[in-house]
Amino acid sequence: MTESDLPVAQLTPGRWGDPAYHVEVPAAALEALKHLGVHRPTPAPRPAPAERPELTGAQLAFLSSVVGAEHVASDLETRWAHTRGYSTTDLLRFRAGDTSDMPDAVVYPASHDEVAALLAGCAEHDLAVVPYSGGTSVVGGLAATRRFVTVDLRRLDQLLDLDEVSRTATLQAGVRGPAAERLLADRGYTLGHFPQSYEGASIGGYAAARSSGQSSAGYGRFDQMVVGLTLATPRGTVELGRAPMSAAGPDLRQLILGSEGAFGIITSVVVRIRPRPTERHFEGWRFESFDAGLTAVRRLAQDGPLPTVLRLSDEIETAVNLADPDVLGGGSGGVLAIIGFDGPYNQATADVLTAAGGENLGEGPGETWRTGRYRAPYLRDPLLDEGALVETLETAAFWSRIPALKTAVTEALVGALSATPPLVLCHISHVYETGASLYFTVVCAQSDDPVEQWRTAKYAANQAIADAGGTISHHHGVGTDHRAAYHAEIGSLAVEALRAVKHTFDPDGVLNPGILI
Amino acid sequence: MTESDLPVAQLTPGRWGDPAYHVEVPAAALEALKHLGVHRPTPAPRPAPAERPELTGAQLAFLSSVVGAEHVASDLETRWAHTRGYSTTDLLRFRAGDTSDMPDAVVYPASHDEVAALLAGCAEHDLAVVPYSGGTSVVGGLAATRRFVTVDLRRLDQLLDLDEVSRTATLQAGVRGPAAERLLADRGYTLGHFPQSYEGASIGGYAAARSSGQSSAGYGRFDQMVVGLTLATPRGTVELGRAPMSAAGPDLRQLILGSEGAFGIITSVVVRIRPRPTERHFEGWRFESFDAGLTAVRRLAQDGPLPTVLRLSDEIETAVNLADPDVLGGGSGGVLAIIGFDGPYNQATADVLTAAGGENLGEGPGETWRTGRYRAPYLRDPLLDEGALVETLETAAFWSRIPALKTAVTEALVGALSATPPLVLCHISHVYETGASLYFTVVCAQSDDPVEQWRTAKYAANQAIADAGGTISHHHGVGTDHRAAYHAEIGSLAVEALRAVKHTFDPDGVLNPGILI
Q1: Per the database record, which ranges form the FAD-binding PCMH-type domain (chains A, B) (predicted)?
Q2: Chain A residues inside the 8 Å CB shell of B504
């Protein structure tokens, strides 16, 4: 299949949590939740969000002067729709009608120059700015610490250039994942970036938060695809990337990638593209245990040949997530791996898995995963309705630390949530020669204060990650949720250096206050 | 062959220009030089370098207190041997007895803590510091703008750790290329980093200057090998790299890599390693023209499979450099490509070259290149003696810009050196999906003022690179020679950000004054 793998045309750019995307929780899952003590809570009242002080006339006039009055929205509905991202904590606060992170206005610039003009004038008009593209942050990346205007980049939606000789494309920041694929597919190319937020997230967000997609084994991370970028800052524009690689000083692209809007707003990027594949293959493999599967995926990561998609679930994730219990041979245990190829099936990859003890389960489990792979986030709202608390977190480390890291995080979560014993699911979905990511999903019954319940669990997990030598995020980013852990990870001197960079670009601190640093 | 390819045991850590490495210029080359109007100049007087003011007793006492008096050298010979790098301009100044870049002392710390203590105390003692590992800079990277102490890192020569599961090695900054390979070979591994400076350059220099080696098609650049590093700064230590990749903010490793000693001294790095190959293959290929070869190497870079070494000479380099004129079929013209494999010969690579019009010349030219591949820099001194001016420069760009960039740089050099018509040789030796490097060698007769002669030519080349959209350096770095062009490339706001980072780490400006920024 090719087209069916890219569900682009039928999607409207929306956000998780949109009632139009409501997903039913499978009956089997509801049954399983009962074993965790999950009971449907009394629906909390959902107060209408309270108004906050409006912008002054002078502030609105400034915004209108830059983008046009018709592209400035200060109505409650628009502001509320741009409030926060999609962490479980965000959802809980949203449901509680908590307006503390609501922007004062939303503006829609149409060009780099308009973004630059907005940033240049914000300090004078006492406005902080939060860049917004997909709104899919799960780390508190849209929660500035003072009142702010949201800059929604959806009108920067163009493919500005496609260089077929160099195989690069220049895409504006507001192009969403499916739109980017459609624009490139029209020319015979693909970006190959399919994070779980694919349907809603956009190019600018991918870059600003160092996204990594489900095809990262074949296409790399988004920060590895970017060969050039344009950044608007309150003090002017920075353009980087004269060549794929350079020895002309530090790689400043890698200083801007991951800066999460704190240094400026990325308005366009130049990305490596590849010919669109004419065939794709997905299949499932069974291993006796997570440890056995770990050895197999490490072998592929280190000696190849890597498939395009490589994913390994642990025992609990395998047991919990499978719609069809027969997939693994009628409950025989073991763990499920998914591999996928963009292009011809590579028997050499399969041979490595077989040699490592893998059993080929055929295309069935591969297709099940492929067709459902963007669905999980949509389950959160109905699961919250049912009284479950569901959240994910992720890390990465060098291979030798992976087993102990997995154990430590799992134990930390189980310990912190002992009053509501959780299920902790885990998978590996991004591999490198020297290490891999670990992605955890936690499911338990909601307590009376689920925000605090998760805060405690998350803190314990963060401590476990730090103690076991992992990074605080492999692909979700820092936002506000990971700020303290991030600073501990890189150390106070490096944080000072980042603050110095921010001060250079943003001396008045108007950009994303409280995010990252 | 395997061992013979790594000439490690017989090499002493020296520097180019060492009389012990004297190389005869081939008679055929001398004959060819006559056509360029090259005449052996009257040997310039080589005055003994003049002494400069010595360090004060307090300064020497401070240095001795940190590293021990026996590891502080202020004798003229040692200081002179640590003066400058190995650009042709450096050589000419060295020959003229120009002491303007001579350090006041050379110190040899033995540990990260000693380096950190040196940096912490230098401001108080009014000492600037130039880090020194291999001394192989060709861009004025060892020429601080005020009097300074050189910190020679040769005693930091240990393999601190080797993680076989993660395939990482922790190497100290002073480990030279051959020593690193020897240390890793003892454990069955290789780094795979073989720049032309391999015999003399060291791990710290590779990292600080973003080195790229001749096997970059297979092993990547050095900045792609580094997964962790430790930096000593005047204000403390920065340790980076919890995982191969992370979304925890900007990739600060890539801010330190390429900082050329301006932010701190890299004392150790964690690098990706690979199993040492048990076989290697090198061979030559002929293409009708550079353009035809360019299409072939681009095809390999974009669609694979890449060999470990991939190198394409243009018509002039092919004609000038070949020891054996019969290699290309008795002067039939065309251009020479070299491919090399670490591991089994890959027929699929050869098939791509054949399909692109290449003719396999067999192992002969490959072995000729392999055995001579570190020799070229040693020819510079005898060529200067003969009255020739020989220098190299390099750039990189996206594929679509490569042909025009090559033409523009060649024309700029020919124009600027019209009084002494030059030969301009060019090759591609580093490829990426989206672009490649271009490496130029210029040969002409010396004028009466060869330093000024080259300054003019280099300025013209730099302008041509900028105008044609190339980067000012693919793997030589910035140093002092490229500083102005570098600042033009990244823009004033980015330079300000770098200065802010430097001020954070080095508020008194003791580190490598004038280098990079």
Answers
A1: 99-276
A2: 493, 496-497, 500
Provide, as residue numbers in chain B, all residues whose Cβ is less than 8 Å from the Cβ of A233: 493
So which residues of B are the catalytic ones?
439
Helix (H, G, I), strand (E, B) or coil at B53: coil
A189 within a domain of the structure (yes/no): yes
Both tokens assigned to A391 = 């959240």
In this structure, is residue A6 part of a structural domain?
no
- Number of domain units in chain B: 2
For chain A (517 residues), the mean pLDDT of every run of 10, in chain order, is 34 52 74 80 62 83 98 93 91 87 95 98 95 90 87 98 98 97 98 93 96 97 98 98 98 98 98 97 97 98 97 93 49 87 97 98 92 82 90 97 98 98 96 98 95 97 98 96 97 98 98 94
Mind telling me the catalytic residues of A?
439
Any alpha helices (H) in A186-314, and if so which ranges? 203-208, 216-219, 222-225, 253-256, 290-303
Mapped onto helix, strand or coil, the DSSP state of residue A186 is coil
pLDDT at B100: 87
Q: What is the pLDDT of residue B149?
A: 96
Q: What is the predicted pLDDT for the residue at A51?
A: 61
Closest CA in chain B for residue A274 = B302
Dihedral through CA A105, CA A106, CA A111, CA A115, nearest 10? Answer: 50
Residue pair A262/A511 in contact by the 8 Å Cβ criterion = yes
- A326 DSSP assignment: T
Question: A residues 171-190 near B, CB within 8 Å?
Answer: none
Cβ–Cβ under 8 Å, residues B435 and A244: yes
Judging contacts by C-beta atoms under 8 Å, the chain B residues touching residue A247 are 209-212, 258, 473-478
Question: Is the domain of B247 the same as that of B336?
Answer: no
CB contact residues (below 8 A), chain B span 149-168, against chain A: 163, 165-168
Q: Which residue of A has its CA nearest to B504?
A: A497
Residue range of the domain that includes A455 = 377-481
Residue B494 token pair:
């980015």
Task: ipTM value, please give it.
Answer: 0.94
Q: Is A251 left (phi over 0), alpha (psi -120 to 50) or beta?
A: beta
Count how many Cα atoms sit within 13 Å of the Cα of residue B368 in the half-sphere of its side chain: 17
Q: Specify if A454 maps to a domain.
A: yes
Q: Do A163 and A258 belong together in one domain? A: yes
- DSSP category for residue A337: E
Letter for the amino acid at A511? Answer: L
Low-confidence ranges of chain B (pLDDT < 70): 1-22, 42-53, 321-332
Q: Closest to B249 (Cβ–Cβ): which among A211, A398, A486?
A: A486
Question: What is the structure's pLDDT at B32?
Answer: 75
* Final residue of a structural domain among B247, B275, B303: B275
Give the pTM. Answer: 0.94
pLDDT the model gives residue B44: 59
Sheet-wide strand order for A359-362? A359-362, A280-287, A335-342, A309-313, A423-428, A435-445, A388-398
d(CA A255, CA B472) in angstroms, rounded, equals 19
CB < 8 Å from B in window 299-338 of A: 302
Give the CATH number, domain containing residue B299: 3.30.70.3450
Are residues A270 and A164 located together in one domain of the fold?
A: yes
Residue A104 lies in a domain: no
Which residues of chain B neighbour A269 with C-beta distances below 8 Å? Answer: none
Do A356 and A299 lie in one domain? The reply is: yes
- CA pair distance B429, B188, nearest whole angstrom: 27
